[in-house]
Amino acid sequence: MGGLSKKVFQIHNITQSENEKRLLLDAGNLLFKRPEINKGPSQERLTAESIIDIYKGLEFDAVGVGPLDLSGSIDLLINSKNNGFPWISANLFDGDNKPLFNQWINRKVENIEIRITALTGSIRNASPDLVRQDPETVLPDLLALLKKDNKDTFIILLSTLTNEENKRIAAGYPAINLIIGADGRKANINPYFLQDCLLTQTSKQGKYQGVLQVNFGTKRKWGKDNAKILADLQNKLGSLTWQLRRLEIKAKLLGNEEKYQSSILRLHKEKAVMDKKIDLAKETLSKEKKDGAVNDQFTYRFIRLHTNMPNDQPTVEKLTLLNQKIRALHKKN
């Protein structure tokens, strides 16, 4: 819990203006650290209730239900869902085969339709009134439904499956554009492509805040960031120009230009190739600015929540109150 006030501060700080569009998402395994929690009042339950309260105040768009979130009781999640907390899970059902939570949430960013769904990983000692269906039993019909009205819908999957399971889903279900994982065995995973799905996750227990910026194109297919490509090419050209100038000056000073002729010629050829690449990148970027990018692009960063980072004061006050409740509980026991 020590990093939660810093996390809240960073979330407030990331959105630089009220007009900036952003989604706040958590893949799950938010509330507890152990798979089984004893019944009755406890420090862990009080902590879980505080986390729900703080996240609700942040107005998260969606939070996936993870196996560890079910460690206390299903009632805690159902009650918070009924009070407006945005739990989602596509593969958790009750004994009558009815979804226990919303299977997806709709959002719209920059006129792009976004559907956020979630898959809950394996559950230990599930109760009879809690049925976890196999993800691949649920996904075909679910994805067809999410794409039914708009083929260009951007689909985000929040997943507490293992990283290997996420890879299989990315390979088998091309309708999914982005998978945000919460595999507790993994640390930060830099975004990477598997076919045309982007996969990533942040480290567990709130050590990092992940920021993924998606620049939507006209098609739901990932492409390259041409502005970054141009900047990289220009940096390489600068390095080549410096090497060439340095070598030419050295050859003149030593009066031995023939010795360096082949190296100078090679650098001139490399520079000419780089000039052509830059011209092409500029042309592509100019077309994008005029007509709009064709493909979706992204940038990302992980913010490490250092101990010397600022805290969100209202959250600090809530955590102070939590500690008071925990001390009172221990006195009773």
What is the domain total for the residues? Answer: 2
* Terminal residue distance: 23 Å
Task: State mean pLDDT (0 to 100 scale).
Answer: 89
Helicity, as a percent range: 40-55%
Portion of residues in beta strands equals: 15-25%
Radius of gyration: 26 Å
Could you say what the CATH topology of the largest domain is called? Purple Acid Phosphatase, chain A, domain 2
Just give the CATH class of the largest domain: Alpha Beta
Q: Largest beta sheet: what is the strand line-up?
A: 5-6-8-9-11-10
Going by CATH, the architecture of the largest domain would be 4-Layer Sandwich
State the gist of this model.
This protein is α/β, with parallel strands linked by helices and 333 residues long. Helices cover 43% and strands 19% of the residues.
Topology, please?
Elements: H1 4-14, E1 25-26, H2 43-57, E2 62-64, H3 74-82, E3 87-88, E4 92-93, E5 104-109, E6 112-119, E7 131-132, H4 135-147, E8 154-159, H5 163-172, E9 178-181, E10 189-194, E11 197-201, E12 208-215, H6 226-254, H7 257-291, E13 297-304, H8 313-332
Parallel strand pairs: 1-2, 2-3, 6-8, 8-9, 9-11
Antiparallel strand pairs: 4-7, 5-6, 10-11, 12-13
Helix pairs in contact: 1-8, 2-8, 6-7
Describe the structure.
The chain is α/β, with parallel strands linked by helices and 333 residues long. The protein has 2 domains: 4-223 and 306-332, Metallo-dependent phosphatases (Purple Acid Phosphatase, chain A, domain 2), CATH 3.60.21.10; 226-291. Helix content is 43%, strand content 19%. The protein has 8 helices and 13 strands. Helix 2 (43-57) links the parallel strand 1 (25-26) and strand 2 (62-64). Helix 2 (43-57) packs antiparallel against helix 8 and helix 6 (226-254) runs antiparallel to helix 7 (257-291). It starts with a helix and ends with a helix. The mean pLDDT is 89.
